[in-house]
Write a structure and sequence with these properties.
106 residues, five-stranded antiparallel β-sheet, 9 strands
């Protein structure tokens, strides 16, 4: 095993978000998400539970129709089937997303 660093190659994309898989094991998936300040809001309704931590930056999500403002260090649990949309992010916002699938992650 070799250590890795969450902040390596963490430049934001020109627009949208970049999803980097950090670990996939059985029914667990851990991703680093790096956001541009230029995003097109998209609603997600996922079949798996997701826990997200905003590592750096700021963001506004709409969860189940309600606006949720996040700053670095804030985390949120999004149960499977819960509608959520990333409405706004600061440039270079970084997330750590932990997905728990009912069956092994593909």
């Amino acid at each position: 095993m070799h250590p890795a660093n969450l902040f390596t190659k963490a430049n934001p994309p020109p627009e949208g978000e970049r999803f980097d898989e950090l670990l996939r094991h059985r029914n667990l998936l851990i991703e680093r998400i790096v956001s541009s300040a230029v995003i097109t809001p998209q609603e997600y309704v996922q079949p798996q539970d997701e826990w997200v931590l905003l590592v750096q930056g700021e963001a506004v999500l709409r969860v189940d129709g309600k606006s949720v403002a996040l700053k670095a260090g804030d985390y949120l649990f999004l149960p499977a089937g819960k509608p959520h949309t990333v409405e706004r992010t600061s440039e270079g916002a970084m997330w750590l997303a932990v997905h728990l699938h009912a069956e092994p992650a593909r």
